[in-house]
Amino acid sequence: MTNPSEPSAxxxxxxxxxxxxxxxxxxxxxxxMRTYGxxxxxxxxxxxxxxxxxxxxxxxxxxxxxxxTSLGHAHPAVSEAVARQASTLVHTSNLFLTAPAxxxxxxxxxxxxxxxxxxxFSQCGATANEAAIKLARKxxxxxxxxxxxxxxxxxxxxxxxxxxxxxxxxxAKHAPFAPLAGFVDHIPHDSADAMTAAVRDDxxxxxxxxxxxxxxxxxxxxxxxxxxxEACDRAGALLIxxxxxxxxxxxxxWFAFQGSGIAPDVITVAKALANGLxxxxxxxxxxxxxxxxxxxxxxxxxxxxxxCAAAVAVIDTIEGERILASARIRGRQLRDGVAxxxxxxxxxxxxxxxxxxxxxxxxxxxxAEIEAGCRERRLLVNAVAPDVLRIAxxxxxxxxxxxxxxxxxxxxxxxxxxx
Length: 419
Ligand SMILES: Cc1ncc(COP(=O)(O)O)c(C=O)c1O
Description:
By secondary structure, the protein is of the alpha/beta class. Helix content is about 35%, strand content about 20%. It has a 7-stranded mixed β-sheet, with helices on both faces. A 4-stranded mixed β-sheet has the order 1-2-3-15. A hairpin with a 2-residue loop joins strand 13 and strand 14. The longest helix is centred in the C-terminal third of the chain and has 21 residues. The site of pyridoxal-5'-phosphate (PLP) has 15 residues, from helix 5. The site of pyridoxal-5'-phosphate has 15 residues, from helix 5.
């Protein structure tokens, strides 16, 4: 296990009190808005792939705070960078310059391969996508006042602000807030013809994920991406790839688009960029990089020195320790292991996704039960659809941890299969 100092932690059974009797849970129930369901556990600290609860039990984290802690918990390089920056300078606003924002933008230019990249920093994935949508609108309106529509894919997820919620192709999430502004055209995620037809003169952008994360770990056909690129070029629209979940090595390369042969005009990044510190980035190249001028877009905390120092540490660590290469090996190990489970009896049907963003496709809607079974064995994964489990361990996960997780997953799936 990754935590040699506590080798037996993962083999113990959980001993914590049931959620309802935990005073912290009771206080949370009273004071936090109920935007999330009941908490599934309370954690005090983490190290590498392991989270520790109040009783000191170790839990194997194959969820990574929803694809965020890609270097594992409390990575020394990130902790050191954060501590150093936090004790030096935490905030100035964007009226003034600080070095970490410039350094983080330079790193993003390097790893995207966009020589002429410019970056707008925000706080999260949704605000990175908001920036991208506004940028595309301004770019479109410079051509024609009505060129403001966005084409997005059914099943997609782009955030919870009003514009990104509207771009999100999941009608159930729209319902409580309808009517929305009505500027997004959703098309099936697997049709190049639908893409070609949907992009019109009034389209300012196509916004898509190369692997839909929240939509059930669904990879996009390269033909759809090619059709999007061609259609955007024809219509003078921008191709925005949402790399919030897929970026920073999650699917193998630094960014998922890099395996496709297609260059977007804009990408959005968040989640793993600062290994848990809040950050979002809208990275544009070519003419898109120069669309925003002073006063067009802003946010008080954007480019925060502590988050940006963490992002620099993340990128330098991944590069310096050649973590993308080792993560690809672990991704293959995990994929092969899930495929082996699929070939045995039980509800595991197939594996999809790439790198360390994998979906376990089940043959019936039992993902929540298997998630719970894994949790009872102190393995964290999550049901991203009724019949799909998401597995997203840190890029630093060890081979032994992958083997242990596969064993637990197999047990949990077999239990559900026998019911
Ligand atoms: C692809 C994608 N885009 C955007 C978001 C929104 O990011 P955030 O929750 O940081 O606002 C998410 C979150 O899961 C995501 O997966």
